[in-house]
Amino acid sequence: MREYKARGALSGRIYIALFTIFLFGSFNVFIVRKGISSANGPHQIKKGYKTSPTADAAQQITSAKESKAQESSVSEEADVAPTGDGFDATAADTSSSSANANTSNTKPTFFIHFGPKKTGSSTIQYGFTSSYKLLQSSTSYRYVGRTGGGPNDFFPSDIYDAEITETRKGIKELSTTLLLHLREGNSPFYSSERLSTLLYNADDKKERFRFENLESLIDSVRQDGFRVKPVVVYRRLFSWVPSYHAQRVFRHKNPECRVSMIRWFDLHDEIWECNNSGTFIDQHPTQKLVDRLNSHLKLDDIAIVNLHRMTPDDEGDIFRQVVREVLPGSKLFLKKFGQEYSLEPSNTSSSKITDFHHLATAVALTDGFSHDNAKKAAQKMSKNYDKIVKMFGGEDNIPTLCFSDDQLTKLLEMSLKFEKELLPEWFAMDGTEIDHRNAFQEHVDGGKFCEWDVEKMLQKKELQDFVKNSF
């Protein structure tokens, strides 16, 4: 998880550039200056499923990573995005105190970030939210907000304050805002992972009007003669599965959707229909999004941000990577961003909150507690994890369920296949597949495909009472 803090009182430069926090866990980003919760569990289940390479292969990974970093690094002379949009790199990289400052050689473009979900969208959005004034003063880019209903949503009131997926009025207001920026020579950036759901459900008659709203927004920009540049993010499937399950499946408001990760993986066709999002058995969520952008919106010039191809300059920060790769001429902004903001984790919980949700939900479904009450109970129990450990005589004695070897093999094969299909040139590079397999093995060894056997755990009367008292 990532969030940003203005430097001010900090003595020295603080960076927690641990990209593995994202790769190995799920994000809950808060922009109340700081706020982070750990995705790492208190119990690390070891699973004897090995794909580790030889020592020579491990050395090959190091060399390949160095080669990739050099290949995708941004030169001082030409800060040009790898998508080859034809921007004048130096033009947008000049500082200006004017909100409308720009240069004539920069082609105004509407950048629209679609997600998909659980690929660091909140980190990207809060990065822009915390620094939109700096972005405005140092580049020709303008952050125009995001959609959502959470307490941390923030729209600069003088830029955009409308929900685009609910009403035509919202679409018209956003379109007006976008065209105003574009006509002044600026490039607006809009972000909402909910847009991916609109595309996934574009053929659903019940949801068609939402997609038509998005379509009308895109058309309004095109008809005025401006370009539309979609931005999507890629996260390896094996890393995405536990994160998506933890937040989008097991915490679903529909009790029938709240199944274990193991069962969900075997029944994902049914579960994904429950979530109105299609299936991932044949395509990676990002690949499906790319195909829908092409087929339904006729957008094929798509920026795909590969989270597994960061450079040292990104300092483990997804937001910095997106800005560097997608927004040409942002070197000055990134330099000032690094000077004015620090990347930190906030107080972290050592507990694996997903397991507590499993426990609380099992009791809630039996005793009739509400979904919201189950969430609160899970948070309360997570603060008293030591009591559960004591009940079982140690965390290693807590009953668990893990993916079988067949499930792990299937998941790895799917993950490799999808990466090869979406990013063939990247996958063909020396060391990429080995790195993929190594990262998967780290997930296995870290217990990412294991979860508490709540049914067996709740046979203990002491635990039943403890969970009920947490509601």
UniProtKB/TrEMBL annotation:
Residues 62-73 have a biased composition (Polar residues). Residues 88-102 have a biased composition (Low complexity). Keywords: Membrane, Transmembrane, Transmembrane helix. Residues 62-102 are annotated as: Disordered. The chain crosses the membrane at residues 12-32. The keyword Membrane applies. This is Sulfotransferase domain-containing protein. The lineage of its organism: Eukaryota, Sar, Stramenopiles, Ochrophyta, Bacillariophyta.
